[in-house]
Amino acid sequence: DKGEYRHYMLKEIYEQPKVIKATMEGRITATRVLEQALGTDAENLLENVRHVQIIACGTSYHAGMVARYWIEDLAGVPCSVEVASEFRYRKHVIQPDTLFLCISQSGETADTLAALRQAKKAGFRAALAICNVPGSSLVRESDLVIMTQAGPEIGVASTKAFTTQLTALLIFTLALARHNGLNAEREADIVKAIHLLPGQVNDVLALDGEIEEMSKAFMDKNHSLFLGRGSQYPVAMEGALKLKEISYIHAEAYPAGELKHGPLALVDSEMPVVTVAPNNDLVEKLKSNLEEVRARGGELFVFADKAADVKPEEGLHVMQIPSVHEITAPIVYTVPLQLLSYHVAVLKGTDVDQPRNLAKSVTVE
Ligand code: F6R
Asked: Which residues form a coiled coil (predicted)?
């Protein structure tokens, strides 16, 4: 039931504070991750993991891309991420003591399951699933399961599944990191930041009206560019995917530093450029990227931390996002991009919940 909402997608975007909270519940205390809550075998299976191989498709793949930044940063464990359809059809090497991590909302995505089944033959330490559907094939075939508590996701464009996947992945990363020397102080710092997420996502939802206003600038455009650096690069990828899926506007995501290596040639006044820029050590670099775009007449839409001091100017629209912890920032910054795509699609009159040519669960190749 959509209730008061016009579309399931909007309802699901607004459910995020609640479902993110549900996904952390019982898995963290005020300052620590409860490893037992990830499974009775978790402690044993996470000990001696030397490599993490993440496999997923679409939005779930973007969650995996964010997780790679976390896993290498916090746990210091090498991590590879690949889309399932590529992994399963190439000759791949699985390193010793690999944790094989599949991420899937439905748990029935054919390519992801095929990759898992193949990898089982090659051998790995353990298979971990991050999944939203209890009893799904993925859940049944994995050694360790962290359920996202998003509840049924009806809109084809994934929203609350993604942010709950990220929440689960961050909690998992902290558990893995504890086996690899993460100190209690840093763990507490990040766990406290996780507790702040529902409130922060609520604060971003309060920007809905402003984002709706901003969406008008995209209505008659055919192309757009999304930029991000570090763990916000996959957030830019996810933002671009949402826009193309439901508004049918061509959207491409680039790591901001790649701009000058090609895509800058495309930038003109017909190419809006969306940038996610939290206040971290990359923001200064990002600012110079923004100058490159503006110098070419490109119109910029920047979602920036209040503290990052990006000032609006002619051709530079700034949406101020409340200050958040650098580690949890990808979760918070996903939300304004979801709202942006949603409003552009509504303005264009597309079928938001059932975009053309797409199915909710891709159980065939
Ligand atoms: C995007 C979207 C798809 C899915 C992909 C994987 O909004 O919904 O890209 O993310 O088909 O599906 P799951 O996560 O069910 O394996």
From this structure: none
